[in-house]
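Q: How would the structure tokens look for this protein?
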Amino acid sequence: MHNVRALTCAILLTASSAVPALSDDFVTVQSRAQFVQIIEGRDLTRFGINVDVSPAGQITGRAFGYPVTGAWQWSGTYFCRDLYWGDDNLGQNCQTVRISGNTIRFISDQGAGDFADLTLR
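A: Here is the predicted structure in token form.
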């Protein structure tokens, strides 16, 4: 059961879709300053997920009834995070970040992997 829970969260937090969006009007976030301006004072949400990514580098919140904690830093043009979901270590992953309106997209594996879209509230 523990592994099923970890797999479910990993899929939902980093891989909401492997199919490209039909209309891709997303713009790539290029810098830490731009990223902080986008996320400061806002929660990142999706059904069952509510996460705060602070300008100071912390990640806190809840996903599907379990706490989400972690840390992030900006490296080059990537958002790099270490993340825990409950007791499960989801590890480090550097991601491309793209923005379209109130939707923020994290693309795993330096933009080569799956993506997760979250709403900025």
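The longest strand covers residues 88-100.

Residues 1-12, 14-22 have pLDDT under 50 and may be disordered.

Upvote if useful.
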